Amino acid sequence: MNNKIPALFTDLYELTMAAVYFEREMFAPATFSFFVRSYPKNWRFFIFSGLEEVLSALEAFSFSEDDLAYLESLGLFKPVFLDFLKDLRFTGDVWAMPEGTIFFTEEPVLEITAPLPQAQLIETFVINSLCFNSLIASKAVRSVLAANGCTVVDFSARRTHGIEAALKVARNSFLVGFSATSNTLAGKLYRIPVTGTMAHSFIESFSSEAEAFSTFAEVFPENTVLLLDTYDTLTATKKAIALAKKLEAQGKRLKGVRLDSGDIGYLAKEVRRLLDEAGLPYVKIFVSGGLDEYEIERLLKEGAPIDAFGVGTKVGVSADAPYLDAAYKLACYDGRPVVKLSSGKKTLPGEKQVFRFKKEGLFQQDLVALREEAFGARPLLEKVMEKGKRLKPEPALEEIRNYIQEALECLPDKLKAVKPSEAGFYPVEMSSQLARLQKAVEQEIRRKELI
């Protein structure tokens, strides 16, 4: 994908604030923290995604002549400010958890330090990118966990919110454990395996279902998966069995069958019974149609003999949790730690670090601390950009995918549950030094502002 995100992709108030900063020569370093405040229902962790997209965009940050002409047409900004924007590039530092890191609420996942106008202008893009990518990765991994080792593939492209969203869903679902995508453009761009079967319209376009089945097998003898529910699933299964026997006589094998509607659990059992009775235990059963982690878990708990799940709409739009309650907030300006005291939306001051403690190979507790602190645990945030330049090359998708799988093995089982207990939250604490700083900053604000 093209990683050149227009600098104009920002809210107007970012530009008006930046204009004031410019007028008052407020160019000192500002540190902003990105974090998520709360979990969607039944979620207990997140997968951090979007970092590579953010870094690529920051390296290419600039206003085009067309952007500046549009801003001039608004009649809001002085020519001298527009001249400032013309030469503006991102020159800041970025500290972040590696892409694919498991994280929890109230933890700084990414911190950006840059001259105040720069750090302010990128706010909208940073939130947009990290929110959507992390949301989809976190939603998709729940289907992987619910499938308990069964294959899961991405079928979301036709109902996601636009082409860019469909591509991001394919990438993120692959990162967290999906085996393939139906989205061929995503396959090309990201080198993700692609897969697909047939639609009901294919069956309907032939004079008979049996003819449709046999014709597809003639053209794709090594990759035939037959859609069974166009007319009657069990009748179609008998036709699939007949075709499978013909393929066997030719030294070939029917790869699988797909169920897309009806009582999937019951039908999967009946189809499996018919296939096995016909001596076709190798034919896989693939199911699709309105699936998510809850439906996958239900089907498997009922003993449905399913080999693979095609997951689409409900993951592609994160149907039950369509947004993350995330924020990008100022934590320090010109060496002065700052906080927000709004009810229910307090923030933490200063440049921070997150330390992760483990016990017997499992995540035990995270500690949010000041960046200069040190503890006998792994620090999660690392410096990934300095003076506007990456410090290391973008990792391959397989590298991120393996990193996520290793992290999932360290996540306590109670946090992986599709419907966890209400009390089962991962502990995230604040270091005593950070707590003292927060208290001191709050007291100073109350002394100066709340008299």
UniProtKB/TrEMBL annotation:
<keyword id="KW-0808">Transferase</keyword>
<dbReference type="GO" id="GO:0034355">
    <property type="term" value="P:NAD+ biosynthetic process via the salvage pathway"/>
</dbReference>
<keyword id="KW-0328">Glycosyltransferase</keyword>
<keyword id="KW-0436">Ligase</keyword>
<comment type="pathway">
    <text>Cofactor biosynthesis; NAD(+) biosynthesis; nicotinate D-ribonucleotide from nicotinate: step 1/1.</text>
</comment>
<dbReference type="InterPro" id="IPR006405">
    <property type="entry name" value="Nic_PRibTrfase_pncB"/>
</dbReference>
<protein>
    <recommendedName>
        <fullName>Nicotinate phosphoribosyltransferase</fullName>
        <ecNumber>6.3.4.21</ecNumber>
    </recommendedName>
</protein>
<dbReference type="GO" id="GO:0004516">
    <property type="term" value="F:nicotinate phosphoribosyltransferase activity"/>
</dbReference>
<dbReference type="InterPro" id="IPR040727">
    <property type="entry name" value="NAPRTase_N"/>
</dbReference>
<comment type="function">
    <text>Catalyzes the first step in the biosynthesis of NAD from nicotinic acid, the ATP-dependent synthesis of beta-nicotinate D-ribonucleotide from nicotinate and 5-phospho-D-ribose 1-phosphate.</text>
</comment>
<comment type="similarity">
    <text>Belongs to the NAPRTase family.</text>
</comment>
<dbReference type="InterPro" id="IPR007229">
    <property type="entry name" value="Nic_PRibTrfase-Fam"/>
</dbReference>
<dbReference type="InterPro" id="IPR013785">
    <property type="entry name" value="Aldolase_TIM"/>
</dbReference>
<dbReference type="Pfam" id="PF17767">
    <property type="entry name" value="NAPRTase_N"/>
</dbReference>
<dbReference type="Pfam" id="PF17956">
    <property type="entry name" value="NAPRTase_C"/>
</dbReference>
<dbReference type="InterPro" id="IPR041619">
    <property type="entry name" value="NAPRTase_C"/>
</dbReference>
<feature type="domain" description="Nicotinate phosphoribosyltransferase C-terminal">
    <location>
        <begin position="374"/>
        <end position="437"/>
    </location>
</feature>
<dbReference type="InterPro" id="IPR041525">
    <property type="entry name" value="N/Namide_PRibTrfase"/>
</dbReference>
<feature type="domain" description="Nicotinate phosphoribosyltransferase N-terminal">
    <location>
        <begin position="8"/>
        <end position="129"/>
    </location>
</feature>
<dbReference type="InterPro" id="IPR036068">
    <property type="entry name" value="Nicotinate_pribotase-like_C"/>
</dbReference>
<dbReference type="GO" id="GO:0047280">
    <property type="term" value="F:nicotinamide phosphoribosyltransferase activity"/>
</dbReference>
<keyword id="KW-0597">Phosphoprotein</keyword>
<keyword id="KW-0662">Pyridine nucleotide biosynthesis</keyword>
<dbReference type="GO" id="GO:0005829">
    <property type="term" value="C:cytosol"/>
</dbReference>
<feature type="domain" description="Nicotinate/nicotinamide phosphoribosyltransferase">
    <location>
        <begin position="151"/>
        <end position="321"/>
    </location>
</feature>
<dbReference type="Pfam" id="PF04095">
    <property type="entry name" value="NAPRTase"/>
</dbReference>
